[in-house]
């Protein structure tokens, strides 16, 4: 899915009746199949931007289009994932992943067949019948990822999906996400606070200003794919990570 955001801004009603400018104006084009990471100071409007693209929040000004069509409400072609896995504790791993298919009316046998195909990609094949309380944080996020990709969305919106995980699990899951994404043709817009994660995953890193968030840098990440953990220590990677960091620091100064 191709995205086009034109002069998007979002104002909220602030305390004491005033207006709080939360985001923008910001313009952004994302090509079909592109993986874009968004970084920026806390509170600059990143989650608000994700909500606008998801059709969950109407912008105060501007136009957001998916494949040339204006987005005004959530679409089944778009899936969204958050830091919290939000699994249903009474449903097994396979039933949590199958939930969107169930809501879409897919018959039980077809649901289970689709989920069974997905489980090995998510390294969950031995946990199909396990319940959320039995899972580590990393496994719970794999289930959450399974639940968003099971419907083959054309746009994946990820809001700090690995933010609550320890550093090594986070790195592992990021690379697993790339394997799942590779060849899917899906467009990805991901918010992260982690500079290395942004550079390791993205085709482009967008650095946002402090609130109301605007684009202060748009950095192309021309590292070869498939990306590997060893790249974290390559000179080309370090130069890009430094470029992202200095754009963030300039903004925070
Ligand atoms: P980020 O994801 O970059 O941390 P957010 O998009 O969550 O930032 O929030 C941007 C700003 O808008 C913050 O100051 C936040 O407090 C404010 N905000 C977010 N949602 C609402 C809301 N529904 N009502 C009022 N203010 C909000």
List the helices and strands and how they pair.
Layout (H helix, E strand, L loop, with lengths): L2 E11 L5 E12 L4 E5 L6 H8 L7 E6 L2 E2 L7 E4 L11 H11 L4 H11 L18 H13 L5 E5 L7 H15 L5 E5 L3 H7 L2 E5 L6 E6 L14 H18 L1
Parallel strand pairs: 3-8, 3-9, 6-7, 7-8
Antiparallel strand pairs: 1-2, 1-4, 4-5, 9-10
Helix pairs in contact: 2-3, 2-4, 4-5, 6-7
The chain binds adenosine-5'-diphosphate.
The site of adenosine-5'-diphosphate has 11 residues, from strand 2 and helix 1.
Structure description:
The chain has 253 residues and is an alpha/beta fold. The protein has helices at residues 46-53, 93-103, 108-118, 137-149, 167-181, 195-201, 235-252, and strands at residues 3-13, 19-30, 35-39, 61-66, 69-70, 78-81, 155-159, 187-191, 204-208, 215-220. The strands form two sheets. Strands 6-7-8-3-9-10 form a six-stranded mixed sheet, sandwiched between helices. Helix 2 (93-103) runs parallel beside helix 4 (137-149), helix 4 (137-149) runs parallel beside helix 5 and helix 6 packs across helix 7. The chain is globular. Adenosine-5'-diphosphate (ADP) is lined by residues 12, 20, 22, 42-48, 211.
Bound molecules: adenosine-5'-diphosphate
- The number of distinct helices, counting runs of at least 4 residues, comes to 7
* Structure classification: alpha/beta
- Give a count of the beta strands, DSSP E runs of length 2 or more: 10
Task: Please state the average pLDDT score.
Answer: 95
**Which percent bin holds the helix content?**
25-40%
Major sheet details: 6 strands, mixed
Strand content: 15-25%
**Strand line-up across the major sheet:** 6-7-8-3-9-10
What coarse outline follows from CA principal-axis ratios?
A: globular
Q: Strand-and-helix sequence, N→C?
A: EEEHEEEHHHEHEHEEH
In terms of per-residue confidence, which ranges show pLDDT below 50 for 5 or more consecutive residues?
A: none
Euclidean distance between termini CA atoms: 36 Å
Oligomer: single chain
Structural Rg: 18 Å
């Amino acid at each position: 899915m191709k995205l086009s955001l034109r002069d998007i801004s979002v104002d909220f009603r602030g305390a004491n009746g005033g207006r709080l400018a939360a985001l923008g104006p910001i313009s952004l084009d994302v090509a079909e199949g592109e993986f874009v990471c968004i970084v920026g100071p806390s509170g600059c409007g990143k989650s608000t931007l994700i909500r606008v693209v998801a059709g969950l929040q109407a912008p105060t000004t501007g136009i957001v289009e998916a494949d040339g069509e204006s987005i005004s409400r959530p679409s089944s072609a778009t899936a969204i994932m958050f830091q919290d896995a939000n699994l249903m504790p009474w449903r097994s791993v396979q039933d949590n992943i199958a939930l969107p298919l169930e809501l879409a009316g897919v018959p039980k046998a077809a649901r289970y067949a689709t989920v069974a195909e997905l489980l090995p990609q998510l390294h969950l094949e031995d946990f199909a019948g396990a319940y959320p309380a039995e899972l580590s944080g990393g496994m719970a996020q794999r289930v959450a990822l399974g639940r968003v990709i099971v419907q083959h969305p054309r746009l994946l919106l990820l809001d700090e999906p690995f933010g609550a995980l320890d550093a090594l699990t986070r790195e592992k899951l990021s690379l697993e996400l790339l394997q799942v994404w590779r060849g899917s043709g899906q467009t990805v817009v991901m918010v992260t606070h982690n500079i290395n994660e942004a550079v390791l995953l993205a085709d482009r890193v967008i650095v946002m200003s402090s609130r109301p968030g605007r684009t202060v840098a748009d950095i192309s990440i021309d590292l070869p794919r498939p990306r590997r953990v060893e790249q974290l220590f390559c000179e080309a990677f370090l130069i890009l990570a430094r470029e992202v960091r200095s754009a963030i620091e300039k903004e925070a100064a």
